[in-house]
Amino acid sequence: MNGAETLVSTLTDQDVDICFANPGTSEMHFLAALGGNPRMRSVLCLFEGVATGAADGWYRMKDKPASTLLHLGPGLANGLANIHNAKRASSGMVNIIGEHSTSHLKYDPPLTSDIEGLARPLSHWVRRAESAESIAWDTTQAVAKASEHPGQIATLILPGDSSWQQVSAAPVLPAPVAARRKAPSSERVEHVARVLRSGEPTLIILANKATRGGALEKAGRVAAATGARLGSQFFTARIERGAGFVPLLRIPYAVPQAMAFLKDFKHIITVETREPVAFFAYPDKPSLLKAEGTMVHELVEADEDSELAFDMLLQALGATGVSAIVQPRIRTEVPTGALNPTSIAHALAAAMPEQCILVDESLTTGRESIGLTLGAQPHDLINNMGGSIGYATPVATGAALACPDRRVFCMVGDGSAMYTIQSLWTQARENLNVTTIIFANNTYAILKAEYANMGAGTPGERALSMIDIDRPRIDWQAMAKSMGVPSVAVDSAEGFYRAIANSTREPGPCLIEVKL
Amino acid sequence: MNGAETLVSTLTDQDVDICFANPGTSEMHFLAALGGNPRMRSVLCLFEGVATGAADGWYRMKDKPASTLLHLGPGLANGLANIHNAKRASSGMVNIIGEHSTSHLKYDPPLTSDIEGLARPLSHWVRRAESAESIAWDTTQAVAKASEHPGQIATLILPGDSSWQQVSAAPVLPAPVAARRKAPSSERVEHVARVLRSGEPTLIILANKATRGGALEKAGRVAAATGARLGSQFFTARIERGAGFVPLLRIPYAVPQAMAFLKDFKHIITVETREPVAFFAYPDKPSLLKAEGTMVHELVEADEDSELAFDMLLQALGATGVSAIVQPRIRTEVPTGALNPTSIAHALAAAMPEQCILVDESLTTGRESIGLTLGAQPHDLINNMGGSIGYATPVATGAALACPDRRVFCMVGDGSAMYTIQSLWTQARENLNVTTIIFANNTYAILKAEYANMGAGTPGERALSMIDIDRPRIDWQAMAKSMGVPSVAVDSAEGFYRAIANSTREPGPCLIEVKL
């Protein structure tokens, strides 16, 4: 076996069995190794940001890392924005970055760059595979790092010669370390129990792995036992949500609304997250959103086990027998008439099939709509944690590959969709069950609001022209057609409902343009 | 004036009068300042790689830097691949990177990243504008750096508070330093004169500013006087080319052909470049392309003045009266029949109007075609110096803005075009005279050849599927329509000729799909 073959088989031996790839010349041996290993699924992406975003989506639904294959420093650079988003979402991933062979580097050929330098700001772990002999070891460590809780970004740089050299001996591997979540400190648990027993208004903010499964259910029991409210940040990596799940209050995005929401809580308890912070700074607004005098108590640190923490807390509260209050199913009438945030939400809630996945990057429209889907069929909701737009269409792609039996709804603004629109092609190629919903308001609408929020006054005509994207107006049906995705445009609530429902009837991708 | 207004007026005071922008919330004051300064042209791009590539194209045609506006670390990251290409092309640019306000950074909000860390690997100069008071000074230095010869990448990080704070006093500016090219050493000139007098077979390789204007013409006189051949690397930032210009031999891309081309030269003389190096390393091929025993002599270093060097060389050779031999006009018949590299080249050569600009990123098709356009009407040829694909459509955008009276032909493979296809939207918005020619072979054709060159054998079906991009086949006419660009598809040589000629008749962009 050569180095590339060893790398791929080490990945699959450790259950990393998908590779989102945009290969180049220096990765031909790796491509051969991908092709030669039937345990590895290779997914071609036409732009690297699609590959890294898809790996993020895969992790969110699978809780295990995918791999990516990127072409030298610039290929990595193209994937960095979605690596940033994945890092902020605590998604693990293993990036393989092709590199010139070692002997060639000293001649500084055109594609040479400082790959370590580019990787380090957004990776938890960076290593160069110095030889084919070390690749199995390096790969094992990369997978172990990516598989930690919270997930980590591991970047392995693969020089051409390490790829094509033969491996002489059976690889030596580090001893496997099971990724375990740390136990929270019992002092912290007891302190939080005292806070909760006080009966003072308390918000418990859940994040990362705490917004799902046993942790969420047990948090619900704590809430039922104590009267504390359960909430989430505005953005969360993944929430199990809808009928039958413990509901979470969402802290609003805008600073005044978030402050109004938080002002009556005397205590904030954090679980795998920190106290609420404004997304951006504004000249006349604070960065921290809690009221003066509100106390913040950390229950679960990012690398700890939330479910265990809630078990301990229920014990400390003597509330192990209490049941959680779950969200009842709210049946929504099919709306008719004009499209607005409410009718959009109602159409969505009425049409969403059980176990669907919502990937939300509809900054303006969705912000007002998504709360109204809380009583829909049970589903997962995925948000952008890093704030770099262009995350939704790739993440939806990865989520659909991770969960082939579930329909993914990718709700995305027109401005955001244009960053990584190449995702549609991979969705068509792999016949993925993704319904892309484009909210086409022909503007970076969020910036219009933010312009005033920032105290920059009323935008003049020239500044406004830099926020509007309606000259030319993007033809979304033509865009979908160009990459082999069927599409429909809607301009009424009933049309939108029908389009969503229709999109679930047959496998494969489609695009709905919502004309706003 | 606030910091943002000071920044924009400092840019325009120093003749940086265009900004390729993809703004976000933290840049609203900058947007207001752009809108408020009529000397600044703001060009909206839907993806940051379009902005940085357009700045590169602007520099190539104007020899002065453009500015870009990017949104925090991830926005910069999206622009890095084309910053890499610009850096390798010695194109100067001033990147303004929006950043959280200083007081907000300590809360590590979602979009926070190590912007300096991301910028440094691909910038010559990085600075954070620590306050509104220092902005005029910082901006002046950024422009001075970007304007050096060779052009430099200057990256100025702009925190929100530096942007919105008022500037209290008239700005203090560093003393202006005229960007001067260094004189080459007379020892080197005399040494090269001795080499040339020897009469031994010699290749003079010109690059960067030496492939145009006075330097190119004087290099032609040296060649005429001495019998030396004039050549270029396979990729050059910009060549003045066609009838009436001194022609350059192009060193082939593939290693065996390049070695065959170089093997008979006893001497290689380099001008603003280095000796030829293979683009990639291959297991059984050398990195350096010259024959054993060939001697390399540096005449002009990257920061020196080539025209002055050739003046000195002509003096040393006693050849100041010799005339250059220039390329005669070769009139090409309009080809008919099948599309192939020759008929494509002939159609292009026959249809190219005087003073057009060719931006070439047609890795497979163009590699064989472009040599046959040497006798066309005078034009400029622009290549990708950094090897990161996705450079052509943005560079064509910037070149068209720089030269509104000239038609730009962007020759691009289908695979490459998909990286930064958002360029079409900016071309439509600004009604730019760009004819985008998509060579649609539905594959990363270059990788098919490279797979074998790499010694990876014959690709199996699974590996091959990662090189083909024909499932689904991209519908280029729909793609053009989606972003408001008219298009035509051609499948014959005469149809291609007609489409090129038609595209020059009216202002504005169009797209030609060449079905291969």
TrEMBL record, chains A, B:
Gene3D superfamilies: 3.40.50.970. Residues 1-106 form the Thiamine pyrophosphate enzyme N-terminal TPP-binding domain. Keywords: Thiamine pyrophosphate. Residues 379-514 form the Thiamine pyrophosphate enzyme TPP-binding domain. The keyword Signal does not apply. One of its GO terms (molecular function) is thiamine pyrophosphate binding. GO terms for biological process: small molecule metabolic process. InterPro entries: THDP-binding, Thiamin_PyroP_enz_TPP-bd_dom, TPP_enz, TPP_enzyme_TPP-bd. CDD domains: TPP_BFDC, TPP_PYR_POX_like. The keyword Coiled coil does not apply. It comes from the Bacteria. Belongs to the TPP enzyme family. This is Acetolactate synthase large subunit.
